[in-house]
Amino acid sequence: MSAELFQGSCHCGAVKFEVRTALNPATRCNCSLCRRRGALMSAPFEEQELRILSGEDALTLYQFNTRAARHFFCKHCGIYPFHQTRLIPKLWRVNIGCLDGVDSFSLEASVANGASLSVVEDA
Average model confidence (pLDDT) for the chain? Predict the structure, then answer.
């Protein structure tokens, strides 16, 4: 699937963004964070394809394990809209569930073995 321009937001609407990305291959990850949040991630894209339209001040950063990946959450509603990846830090992924007009349940997804990259047991 080719990259398309999407509008998106967190649940409460404090964070609004647009992103140019492909939806496929959609991916889930089995690391401890992704298992708990259950998000479906877009194909990777470069940072310049993501533009925060409003609410940058509502974002909070969470890092764990090697602290290479940068996971962003809305500090009001707790939703994860996007993150910078661990393996290739110049690449980002967006939470497909945050994209307007996209049914994330209609997409097939592969599973990334993020758990194998952990340097901490069960992370």
Answer: 88
Q: Is the pLDDT of residue 12 over 70?
A: yes
Report residue 18 CA to chain centroid gap: 13
| 52 Cβ contact partners less than 8 Å away, ≥ 6 residues apart | 15, 16, 17, 59
Q: pTM for the whole thing?
A: 0.84
Yes or no: say if 99 and 10 are a contact pair by the CB < 8 Å rule. no
Residues 55/10, Cβ–Cβ less than 8 Å: yes
Average pLDDT of the residues in 47-61: 98
Q: In this structure, are residues 14 and 74 in contact, taking their beta carbons and an 8 Å threshold? A: yes
Domains located in the chain, CATH noted: 4-115 (2.170.150.70)
Contact status, residue 54 vs residue 110, Cβ threshold 8 Å: no
